[in-house]
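Predict the assembly for these two chains.
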Amino acid sequence: VTAIFNFGAGPAALPRAVYLQAQAEMLDWQGSGLSILEVSHRSAAFIALYEQAVADLRELLDIPAHYQVLFLQGGATAQFSMVPANLLRGKGKADYIQTGTWSDKAILEARRYCDVHIAASSAASGYTFAPKQWAVRPDTAYVHYTANETIHGVEFHTLPETGAVPLACDMSSSILSRPVDVARHGIIYAGAQKNIGPAGLTVVIVREDLMGQVLPGQPAMVDYQLLAEHRSMYNTPPTFAIYIASLVFKWLKQQGGVAALQVLNHRKAELLYHCIDQSNLYINRVQPQDRSLMNVPFTLDDPGLETEFLRQAEAHGLLQLKGHRSVGGLRASLYNAMPFAGVQALVRFMDDFARTHGFS
Amino acid sequence: VTAIFNFGAGPAALPRAVYLQAQAEMLDWQGSGLSILEVSHRSAAFIALYEQAVADLRELLDIPAHYQVLFLQGGATAQFSMVPANLLRGKGKADYIQTGTWSDKAILEARRYCDVHIAASSAASGYTFAPKQWAVRPDTAYVHYTANETIHGVEFHTLPETGAVPLACDMSSSILSRPVDVARHGIIYAGAQKNIGPAGLTVVIVREDLMGQVLPGQPAMVDYQLLAEHRSMYNTPPTFAIYIASLVFKWLKQQGGVAALQVLNHRKAELLYHCIDQSNLYINRVQPQDRSLMNVPFTLDDPGLETEFLRQAEAHGLLQLKGHRSVGGLRASLYNAMPFAGVQALVRFMDDFARTHGFS
């Protein structure tokens, strides 16, 4: 039996140990005789799970005490509205960094709420780099950036100073892949379906002094302050998704935390980018210093070979390598749960495929 | 080993057959080699699952073609905002029926959006009946009612005529428990965590002509029209929750559909209400014709016995019988997945407990 490796961008593969535990406990969680799916979110057992998950995430990302951790619904897309609705605080203007599809979506939604200024952009290049200089308005409410562009494969590895202006970050596809300086941010948010858990859960980490000034006329559920006061249980939370996330956090701690994952993620990405760069079949146009460690998009020098590439890859157990429908091409996502052996298998296949088709 | 029956109000017990299938497929869904948790929502296999789930729900509830079926996030609480944001259509006023905690919450949220008129209320009685006459304003945008009050145990078994005014219904705790005349409604919505599936999924059934006039300045994700255009995939949907719901829909069809469930649900509720009414220990104050078939709240003539009741019930495998923290007392939820044998076991225990403590 060939080992199977899922390179999909999300909902993405989770650690096998997590699947096994979820499977084992499906009909009897913690000896309760109940499935985790039917445990009340108000029960002492679930509250304990929830509090431990928050504590584990705080430990993993070294989150300062004056930040709230919220487990919400609606994905990053809901946050595209909630960030301006909460963080504008009467300022009426926000600055955005434009680096690909996901920052574009955030910008489009923010324009419903305020005067948006593009403080830096790589659009003219076709999104091939992460801008190093930002023209931030000093009186802007916040600066929003997308830590990792899942579709374009561009990642910020350093950030310019923004002084007193809070940073707002969509970290959906890179959270927990490496350490992050939370204290430089006003807010960090992430859809769970890459490095955290199932689709349908969103993690928000928000500085307490930025809460409590939500725009009038918005839905109650948009208000971070209200959600924090109810410890993410203003309404019934996605309990199963939180349970899976709690198992992923435990697994991450067992792996040595995000510093250990960062080392492994560097090794995985280097192996794949090396394979691409030394080949005359595979092409990645992102500037080397801004390449994503999580999502590696590439094209073929002969695009007519794409279908055959995907067919053969699948036969080798290398799945979901098709690029996003908006940009085409191919893409390998290397989230935390992707083992080094998966990237080795991919690179072996890619080398063979290139040679077989007359490339090096 | 004592059989275990979970009477919790939600997240509630799902059919055992569903747990077993989810467990069996956890590491390999449909022979894909992938867990359902890591399948792309854009994959042909998942789209097929999604379309089948929508088709099964349409069949189960006999949903007319001019209604959209949406699978969303945020629970009924999100719908408390989305209903006025979409259905007001410039009218600026909406009528609400007040029958308990959940309609109270819907009313509170609607007041952020419009002039709310209480067209009927049972508040003065302590929420012990479902009003039969409603004083609906003829120029109101819609009339909202809560089909079943999960906490107060009051259910609408008939509805007055509202003429051309659309009905908006929170059906969270009674959807799929019996047939419903969808065509009398402008919109029906339901959090999944009672009769549909895991917490974190919300089903919305909305008449097409009521979409497309969302209030300005609201988040994009509030707009039913936008969500319908993207077939519930404007952003990544809660894929695992939709998968579980699809299994529940299949199970419901195997049971004979909602008409068969209605018969069973009547038998279950009658057995329990008979036990309560013939006893001088147990008390349910809801008017008999308006009692809920899904949630049966009751108190003890000697409230000091509650703790002992819960302790002994748990020892008999009868779980989560504690009433909602806002009203206290006890509550047995009898959703579709509760077998008749569960209610028999509960009634046997309740009869014994009453006798043991000097009651009949």
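The CA atoms of residues 82 and 92 of chain A lie 14 Å apart. Chain A is about 35% helix and 15% strand.
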